[in-house]
Amino acid sequence: MNHINKNLPNLIKAAFENDIETVELSSLNIIRALKKEDEDTAKKISALLSNYRSGASLTRAFGQEPVPRDEEGLNSLVKLENNEDFSSKIFLSKKYEETIDNFLKNREHMEKLIDFGIAPSNSLLLYGEPGVGKTFLAKYISNKTQLPLITLDLSSTISSYLGKTGKNIKEVLDYAKRSPSILFLDEFDAIAKRRDDSSDLGELKRTVNVLLKELETWPFDCILIAATNHPELLDNAIWRRFDLKIEVEKPDKSLRLKLWKYYLDRGVVEINDDFIFFLSSTLTDVSPSDIEQISSSSLQKQIVSGGSIETNTIKSIIETNVISEHNLKKKLVVALKKEYEKNATQRDLAKLTGFPLSSINRYLKEEE
Ligand SMILES: Nc1ncnc2c1ncn2[C@@H]1O[C@H](COP(=O)(O)OP(=O)(O)OP(=O)(O)O)[C@@H](O)[C@H]1O
Ligand SMILES: [Mg+2]
Questions:
Q1: Which one in 19, 103, 159, 260 has a CA-CA gap of 20 to 30 Å to 349?
Q2: Residue 117 Cα, ligand 1 centroid: separation in angstroms?
Q3: Would you say domain 60-247 falls under CATH 3.40.640.10?
Q4: Residue 133 Cα to ligand 1 middle (Å)
Q5: Ligand 1 contacts CB of residue 133 (under 6 A)
Q6: Ligand 1: does its nearest atom lie under 6 Å from the Cβ of 229?
Q7: Could you tell me which residue ranges the AAA+ ATPase domain spans (predicted)?
Q8: H helix runs in the chain, sequence order
Q9: What pTM was estimated for this model as a whole?
Q10: Where are the domains of the chain?
């Protein structure tokens, strides 16, 4: 009974203060304590806990309750999407595919976890370079859990509402918590970055503290996802608060193969598998977003002007400028000769790449 006694005053106080988060946490503690002695009551409490908010979404019929706005009421602070029709294919690295699957499974079995007095994980920190798919992953999770995605871009909130940041963020957090949803904090490092800036240090410190407290007590039926390109800027206190931290990495070769195939082979023209293989093994430092961009630019050329898909793709690789590799043209020519068209003459290579014959000659000579 000891545990229950300890939690009861907290529970009652929280109930009077309308502090839902503490009500949830104290109830979980009580479920755990009761589980052995009085399973019936434990079950009853856990049913209450799992269900009391299930009607809540009715109070925010999707897109009807106004989203929080800045003081002048002009700009909405968040973007609201339901992602019901997110049907894009997502290719996940083996390294974290299982973590994501488990996270989703946990959400499905939330009530079972609560039955045992175990809080389901609900916070996720995604970090990695631009274009690796952090936002994409948040949308995917929103689709799979059928929860609306509420996006708050912290970098714009902080810079454009200087002085009112704390109030704005608090408003968004309250809005997100009101019914089951995913709050997506994009550019999360904006919070940390500005901590060195003395001009609004006090305000930002307060904001960070508000956020940390919220993270601890985020309601079970809400998910919080944060994304950043600069994990090194987040301090330990923030880092520790997330249940799961996932490094979204650039794709390895097998994933690059799937991505090139998916984005380039769209029924416009037939694509030689060897060419997909050549792209995946030659361009090693690309993000899914680079692959998507090069492929669509190349298919546009193909549809509008015809020609060969190989030439169009190589043109797009050079033009889109997403690969900052020293001597990219030479690398492409050498790899083509070695791995794709072994019997090609210099003239063939010039035709295939669209590069002048003299350059082809020079690249191959330098390589010998
Ligand atoms: N795992 C993936 N599978 C398939 N396509 C992907 C994947 N990841 C990213 N993409 C493609 O790349 C695009 C850009 O990805 P996204 O915007 O999610 O990157 P990001 O990590 O959020 O980048 P940033 O840090 O710049 O915000 C997506 O719209 C999608 O077309
Ligand atoms: Mg993003």
A1: 260
A2: 36
A3: no
A4: 3
A5: yes
A6: yes
A7: 120-252
A8: 2-17, 20-37, 39-51, 94-108, 110-115, 134-145, 154-160, 165-177, 189-193, 201-216, 236-241, 253-264, 273-282, 288-305, 309-320, 328-335, 346-353, 357-367
A9: 0.83
A10: 2-52, 60-247, 253-367
